[in-house]
Amino acid sequence: MPVTAPPTSPARARIRPLFGLGVCLAASSLVLAACGDGGDVLPESDGPALPSSGTPSLSDTAPSAAPDTDGPPATSAPLDPAACGAEVVPVRRLSHFEYRQTLRDLFPDVDLPNLDLPADNRPNAFDNDAESMLASSVLLERWMDIGLAIARTLGEDIRDLVDCRPAEEAPAEWLRCGEAFLRDFGTRVFRRPLSDDEVEVYGTFFGEPLDGAGFTERLQLTLQFLLAAPEFLYRIERPLEPLAPGEQGPLDPWALASRLSYFAWGSMPDDALLAAAADGSLLDPAVLREHATRLLADDRAREAFSHFHEQWFDVRRIQSTFKLPEDGLTEALRDDMREQARRFIHGVLFEEDGTVADLLASDRVFLNAPLAELYDVPVGATDDDGWFETRVDERVGMLTKPFFLASHAHPDKPSLVLRGAFVLERIMCVTLGAPPPNAESEAAAVEESIDGPLTNRQFYELITADAACTSCHQSINPIGGTFEHFDTMGRFRTHEPNGLPIDSHATLRDWSFTGAQDMMEQLSSDDTVDRCMVQTWTRYAWGGAPVVQSTCHLDDLRARYHAEGGSIRDLQLAIATHPHFATWVEPPAETP
After folding, report:
1. Which of 36, 196, 250, 383 measures 20 to 30 Å from 492, CA to CA?
2. What is the pLDDT of residues 263-274, one digit of tens each?
3. For the packed helices 568-577 and 527-541, what is the interaxial angle rounded to 10 degrees?
4. Are 556 and 84 contacting, i.e. CB atoms less than 8 angstroms apart?
5. How many of the other CB atoms lie within 10 Å of CB of 109?
6. Average pLDDT for the chain
7. CA separation for the pair 255, 89 (Å, rounded)
């Protein structure tokens, strides 16, 4: 009997409210209360106040000066965590990445069906931004369809998911075996044991008359609805013990297991982690550290590690970048650019346990034949996939790679504004504001008045020289100007198409740069960048939502991760073992 939507019955009527809860959660905005000593989701550094957030464009605004780098030394002793208020963490829907990874780990031996999902909104770089992850009716339908497809794909093999094996002609045993299925496999689906009430609700399929449905079909129907339940699709955390509004206490061990696994792997807890949750040992900081270390060393962490950095550096932007036909930006070359970024992340950060300095300034370069042509270097000895490693002058870190340079450029020329704004926003955590309302028209008028050849940099300096732009672009333009030796495709050049020589020198406050490589090398060891990385990783760990991050907490994390060794994986370990990570904060009571 093929698996279909269940008929209208008391069983379906009792399950419908559970699925309706998922719809309500998806359609509601979660209001998060401030905690700690306050601040924005990405707190500004100790420098001057900055304009509100905006989208980079030709006329983007920026602060009149780069943020100060003053602050407590990164190697100072960890602070007393009790002095830092923990964060209220929102209910989080599984991101599309987390959903796919979870299904892969839940059904490791199953050829999963098409898992394509409607695109999620990404207002803040990351796909796990809790407040923006509303579930549309299309997404709800896809979840149901995928659950149905998995149940059908399993077929008779679904009986392998339960130890109890009743005969198809022995319905008296179905309810007992169905309950065993829910208490065993259901725990893996929900990432915690089902309550007795939940077992009764979902177990109704095993005791109700359903014409033509044997035990296998009832398992399939039950699985379909488990995979559409809010407890599977959302990470609904709970405290270990009830708390009063505003109080904080230990997180429930099952919720802690999920918090750790989704941070390290972007997926569900494995059996060892679930066992530590079941016996409560995960609440022991030493045991939590053991599991965090184990998870971060697993290959699944490599995928999650790459996924984070590809989002942070907006690697996928190259897929929608438009270029002129003569530049030859084919789909294959776009894929090569993304693969180059992945290989760099894996090689430099995962295999070598690299630091933020390696991320921004390592001189390791991974190329294949098409990229070697773009770099204008000979092809070396390649691996089985056609890739080789080399060193190339002026090429360091993530931001001198073609995926970034080409995707932050116009079809006919580089954009020092897009490139400079990216560095300020993503690497230094500077909040940029919207341009003046007439910025585009003013820039167009200036462009029409230009007489004579200019370098690309001179052109941008001229059109952003208006008083309304100067105070902002005096930060964007110098940083973006250091990339001027790279054209719209990311090729290195020494002269403009009109023959004028290119100058990539720049000065910004106390910094003086000779070009992009020099800038990356200097920024890679700067406190501003280190603090920004901690802010970014912490935000990602808390679900990408605008959770308040106290300066106290961030300073403590910086001290802890540098004490661990200072690599990015040391930062991950410091986050996962910080007292706040295992803490639940009860949201304040709603005012009537």
Report:
1. 383
2. 999 999 999 999
3. 50
4. yes
5. 7
6. 84
7. 12
